[in-house]
Amino acid sequence: MKTITVGEREIREVVSMKEAIDAVRQGFVDLAAGEFEMPTRTALRDGQFLVMSAHHRPTASAMFKTLSVNFERKPAIAGTVIWSETGHLDHLVADAGSVTALRTGAVVGVATDLLAPPEAGRLTLIGAGGQAPDQVRAVHAVRPLCQLTVVDADLGRARDLVERLAPELAGVELLTATDAVPAVRQADIVCCATNATTPLFPESALPEQVHVNAIGAYRPTMRELPDELLAGSTVIVDELDAILEESGEIIHALESGAITRDALTELGTALSAPSPDHGKRTVFKSVGVAVQDWAVARLLADRFLA
Q1: 193: in domain
Q2: Do residues 236 and 158 share a domain?
Q3: CATH of the domain at 129
Q4: Beta pairing partners, 95
Q5: What is the pLDDT of residues 73-86, one digit of tens each?
Q6: I need a surface site. Which of 64, 140, 163, 254 has the fewest CB within 10 A?
Q7: Is residue 96 within 8 Å of 67, Cβ to Cβ?
């Protein structure tokens, strides 16, 4: 028996964003088909410590992730992802921060590919932290960008992110801002990746047709989107049980009466629906679920445990 340890460099070298998007998409289709055993994650100290697991019945494989979250440090996310199969003695242990960023980007790529208009090319990204680069990479992979605006209260941090991404975004107009409201007015796609506790912009600031991804708020006390946006949009969520327990936006909108549970559709169900008609405004809300980590870990296992 041996344990293979995989760090950030190896993860980035062997798993492309396109591969991660394809793997996560299939993972959600399998989740909707009942092929996973996936408990709601354990959150300790109000989400500063998280434990997640997923078991894929057809392959008798499982993923276990433990991590700590602290927005005052860099990187904010630290921990391990463990991959195991009943048919093999070898295990894989991967850096949880890298896997989390990659799989969070990938699910946004899946949702954007499903929900954003085919011609969408202007992205406004709110938040320039650790999850931000893969948000851009994922959207760009499914909707080639013509314009990117990065919004952050720290303009220097926004500029640093744009400079880092510039080599990957040849021909894309790159802008930075500190105010989200004017930045979202002309966007085709908006990605929210912050630790905000109040909405980042009013619903009225958005164009009539727009797709919004919100991945930053993962606790009931956190909130990036206003009730009015959720009430007037088609809302897709990663997994209903997790959303109802952890998503501040959804919990607030339900309690205020802005939406009902019937308004929420799981991503796996939406992916399996023939020719969905999603309307002019769409929202994808994710708190992050273990099937995403399983999908990326499986790609790593295929390469390092083969």
Answers
A1: yes
A2: yes
A3: 3.40.50.720
A4: 80
A5: 888 888 999 999 98
A6: 163
A7: yes
